[in-house]
Design goal:
Blueprint (H helix, E strand, L loop, with lengths): L1 H22 L37 H7 L7 E4 L4 E4 L4 E3 L7 E3 L1
Antiparallel strand pairs: 1-2, 3-4
């Protein structure tokens, strides 16, 4: 019985040591400069959930992340100035805040 405990203890130490050795990163590093960033390329990202519809009027929060780059809006809200700014529209004006004229 005592030898079984010793074997379990030794096995535990070996497994722990192997786990810790596998988690360590490579030693050293490169002192060479990385270089200048390059423009262009492709960015891909994963968004959780399924898209039930590509209609921006009914797509939900996660699906809206997929829908929004496809459907542009005439105006966007600028959070810094707290005002609407043209996006697809070239300009807009409103004398009374109820009727709007947008130049496309």
């Amino acid at each position: 019985m005592k030898s079984r405990r010793v074997m379990v203890a030794i096995a535990s130490v070996l497994v722990t040591g192997a786990s810790l050795a596998g988690c360590s990163g490579p030693s050293g590093g490169s002192d060479e400069p990385v270089g200048e960033p390059k423009s262009g390329g492709t960015l891909s990202w994963a968004v959780p959930g399924e898209t039930q519809s590509m209609d921006p009027a009914i797509c939900g929060s996660a699906a809206y992340t997929r829908c929004s780059p496809v459907f542009g809006t005439l105006l966007r809200y600028d959070t810094e100035t707290e005002k609407f700014v043209p996006y697809l529209a070239e300009s807009f004006e409103s004398a009374d805040g109820q009727n709007w004229t947008l130049k496309l």
